[in-house]
């Protein structure tokens, strides 16, 4: 691909992703309880945290695997939004003083700074409850995929690993393990659930899952590289916090350059997992490239 | 019923409830992840909070409505245990310094005192995730009943109301509203789900739900009366805390005696909702009497 073609694909992809992001935001607005309805402070807090920004990576990936698997219609928006609700729930609890103690998130005050810690704990809990409510009609396989990604061997386990490794010397394989649980599990579940809801064959569903595991790990590495190199603009938060807290990240263990190399290799490996879907749907591979192209 | 007959029924009921409690504990032990499996600190924290005591009221009520509806076999134990997991999750978050700030629960140190606040937040989250995992195979109606009881118009909404009313003057109807959400919603859901899993007819299922709403409110009033009258033995915690924090309770608004009267009336009303099941299964009515007999 020559330079001009690459640019044109890149511009199209950005418009494509932006359109999906706006759609996701519209559906999130429908699914979240109205601010004017009691308990108002809880609903306001839930909405503040969800609409404080965010690239909507997880719901968009769910939509892309749904479309790549031939899925049609609006049925994907509930499970897709579930992924963002649960991601936001994890951020809200992660930002608490007893966890990462962050004052800013995406350039805005974190939820507990505005609403108090008690409301932040409960708003996180309520986002998780809403996620399950929305997912309830989708049957045991979707639900089990989701709870596995969320639980002790998934996102929550990863957050514990993160918390417990602060200030300790960790090996690369320990960091890998934490990131697989903390980030990759939910991204992999988003992709798998998109394919499941579209009714894709089992083998393709598993391909999307493996694609997500690798892409998710690459995504976390890229995020940590952006944080380590102080790229405030790309992250919209006070960077350097990971070093200050001596958190377990790829850049802190093997340095920035080696981390970038690994992230790029992971994205290539990820793409090889989804060669089967229709060649006319290039957006998943492009989105994967786009994620790693941030560094 | 003469005094001797009443005593004998009461003794039988206690043995009956104790047997159910032991069964519930055995199943909770099976459902909770092993302590020796990573992330160990999370699994230890989950187990500590669940096995720090507790009367297992919610799972027992689910089992009783299941049995009263003719349900047979072990299928009820997963949904029954779910109710205890979610109740424990709410206690763990409720005890945090940013919420009720309690050092003792059921006579033992609260989870965050032993494991730190960060782990306590995540262990609560993980108990809630496990609850959904166990409930996933039970179908949309059970799941929706549960998420409704848990969400902003249920338990979590009640906790917000509780938090926001501290130190403020509240009316009796505001307190009633908070308690219906905070406590009665999950108890009503436990009873409804027991009947649903047993395949009871719709009308009976709704009867159990209404029974639970009234019993749940009575239960919270009785708990607050025990707290207000400083009955340490019955609650196994440092009592008087509600007054110290000026929490919204029936005794603080209308006094202890009127609260007792209302609790007793609610139990009578509750029992009238479940006249339909087989007269050979008296345990639900007896358990309702037993709950209010604590004061």
Give me a quick take on this structure.
Two copies of one chain form a homodimer. Chain A is mainly alpha-helical.
Q: Which CATH architecture of chain A is right?
A: Orthogonal Bundle
Helical fraction of chain A equals: over 70%
Instruction: Fill in the CATH topology of chain A.
Output: Farnesyl Diphosphate Synthase
CATH superfamily annotation of chain A: Farnesyl Diphosphate Synthase
Query: Which residues of chain A sit in consecutive blocks of at least 5 with pLDDT less than 50?
Result: 1-6
Mean pLDDT value of chain A: 91
The level 1 CATH classification of chain A is Mainly Alpha
Number of helices of chain A: 15
Largest interface, by Cβ-Cβ below 8 angstroms: which chains and how many residues each? A-B, 45 and 45 residues
Calculate the terminal CA-CA distance of chain A, rounded to whole Å. Answer: 20 Å
Helix/strand/pairing category of chain A: mainly alpha
- Principal-axes geometry of chain A comes out as globular
Question: Helix and strand succession of chain A?
Answer: HHHHEEHHHHHHHHHHH
Strand order, largest beta sheet of chain A? 1-2
> How would you characterize the largest beta sheet of chain A?
2 strands, antiparallel
User: What oligomeric state do these chains adopt?
Assistant: homodimer
Rounded to an integer, what's the Rg of chain A over CA atoms? 18 Å
